[in-house]
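Email to the structure team, subject: Putative aldouronate transport system permease protein model.

Hi all, the expression group asked for a predicted structure before they design truncation constructs. Nothing fancy, just the C-alpha cells so they can compare against earlier work. One-line instruction: predict Putative aldouronate transport system permease protein, return C-alpha cells.
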Amino acid sequence: MNVTSIRRENTVSPIANALLNAMFLLLALACVLPVLLVVIVSFTHNDALVNDGYRFFPTKLSWIAYESLFKDYSTLARAYVISIGITVVGTGLSVILMALYAYPISRQDYPFRKFFTFFLFFTMLFNGGVVSKYIVFTQALGLLDSYSALLLPLLIIPFNVIIMRTFFQATIHPALIESARIDGAGEFRIFFRIVLPLSLPVLATMALLGTIVFWNDWFNSLLFIRTEEKYPLQYLMLRVLNDVQYLRSNVQLAAQNPELMSNLPDESLQMAFAVVCMGPILLVYPFFQKYFVKGLTVGAVKG
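Reply from the structure team: attached below.
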C-alpha cells in the first residue's frame, strides 16, 4: 500500500468535514451570541426592553445605563482596584499553597500521604456551614471588615488540589526526584527548581480557575465587609442593582416622579455592569489558554 492510498483512507470525507465545520460554527455562535446580546441590551432603552424584550436589533437605544454606572466613577474605580488586588494576590497565594499541599501527597514515599488525602477529600463532602464560618472569621480570627476575610476562604479548593496531585503523579517521575537528591538538592529546591517549572500547564490552569473564583466572589463580601470604601466590584454591583430594584418597586416614589422612574435603568444596568465586569477575565484568558486543556486532561482524576 503506497503513501497516496494511506492518505486517501485517512482523509475525512467532504460531507463529514462540512458537518464538523457546521457543528463547530454553531458551538462558537452559542458562545459568542449571548455575550453580544448582553452588550446590545446594555445599550437598549428600558421602554424597548419592556415592550419588545431582549432583541439583537433594539427599537430604541440609550446610554442611560452607562451614564448611571459612571456617574460616580471614583467609587467604581476604587471597587475595580480592590477586586483586581484581591484577585491577583489571592490567585498567587492560592496556586502556591495548593501546589505545596498537592506535591507531598503525590509522593509515594511520604508517610502521611493517605491521611492528608483523606482529610482533603473529607472537606469536599462536609463543611461547617455559613454560621460557623462567620463565627470563626469574625470572632476567633477577628477578620470582620478585612480584606483577609475575602482571601482566606478561597485559598484552598480541594478539587483543584486533587487535580494538581494527579498531574504531579503523572508528570514528575520519581527517578527525577532521586537524581536531584543525589546531586544534593533539598526538598524545597527540588520543588521550586524542578517540580514547578515542569508543571506550568496545571499551574496556569489553576491560576485561571482561581482568577475566576476570586473575581466573581461576592458572598464573602456580603458576610464580612461593612465599609463601603472596601466593597469589591461584584458586591458593589449587587448593592447598586438592589437599590435600583427597590426604587422601581417603590409605589410612592413612582407616583411622585413618573418620568424619573420610566427612565431609571434596570435590566440594561445589569447588562452594563456585566460588560464592565467581564473585561479583566477576557483579557486574562488568552494568556492561559494554551495551558488550559493540557492542565485539565493530564491532571484529570483517574479511576
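DSSP finds 17 helices and no strands in the chain. Residues 202 and 295 are 4 Å apart (CA to CA). Ping us if the truncation boundaries need rechecking.
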